Amino acid sequence: MALVKPLDPNHDKETKQLAEFFNETLGFCPNSVLTMQHRPAISKAFINLNKAVMANEGRVTSALKRMIAWVSSNATGCRYCQAHAIRAAERYGAEQEQLDNIWEYRSHPAFSDAERAALDFSLAASQVPNTVNADIKKRLYEHWNEGEIVEMLGVISLFGYLNRWNDSMGTSIEDGAVESAETYLGNIGWEKGKHDGSQY
């Protein structure tokens, strides 16, 4: 059971309207957002930030943004966000080989050097202490411009918030997210962990 129970999707009219965004990205409104509704200003601000961060302004595709989110969530250990990120990557057209081999992005031929630079940036920026360094910067600038790097760090930072929120809350994971995680991550050990609704 989660630390705080999610509220009904109809609890706050403005949140419900904004949350239609997630019907495209995930196919459902996440329990994390339904929990944030206990303070609707937080749920609304979060959804608007999410929409801004995930907007495509350059060459950083929707699929790559979700893979960046997955690497970040994997680094912090949040299984809830790992499942959501891989599901959204799938829904936004990530290549099958990439979805099947996301754990091996550094060496698998399905990933380009530009994608590897972005995903290594996500890993370095998500660690504590942070390990972004001159080499990461050099590799990023070989493939991406400043605006695109800002977009990437927006995703990493957004998921830093989500990783802390969902792991601290023990947010119960939704069936659709479980299905995607078991499909793409189950063979390498993904499980619900604290998000199965039985803890706390």
Note down, in words, how this protein is organized.
This protein starts with 12 loop residues before the first helix and ends in a 16-residue tail after the last helix. It is mainly α and 200 residues long. It is 60% helix and 0% strand. The chain has eleven helices and no strands. Helix 5 runs parallel beside helix 8 (113-126), helix 6 crosses helix 11 (175-184) and helix 8 (113-126) crosses helix 10 (146-169).
Which key phrases capture this entry?
mainly alpha, 0% strand
Summarize the structure.
The chain has 200 residues and is mainly α.
Which structural class should the secondary elements be placed in?
A: mainly alpha
CA distance, first residue to last residue: 6 Å
Share of residues in strands: under 5%
Unreliable stretches covering 5 or more consecutive residues: none
| CA-based gyration radius | 16 Å
Please report the total strand number as a whole number.
0
Proportion of residues in helical segments? 55-70%
Shape: globular
In round numbers, the mean pLDDT is 95
Number of separate helices: 11
